[in-house]
Amino acid sequence: MLLQRLKLLRSKINQSQSTFAKNLNLSREAYSMYETGRRQPSCETLAAIASYCHVSVDYLLGLTEVPTPARGLSPEEDFLLKGFGRLDKRGQDIALTVIRHELRQQTPGKTPTKPN
Question: What topology is assigned to 2-61 in CATH?
Answer without folding.
Answer: 434 Repressor (Amino-terminal Domain) (1.10.260)
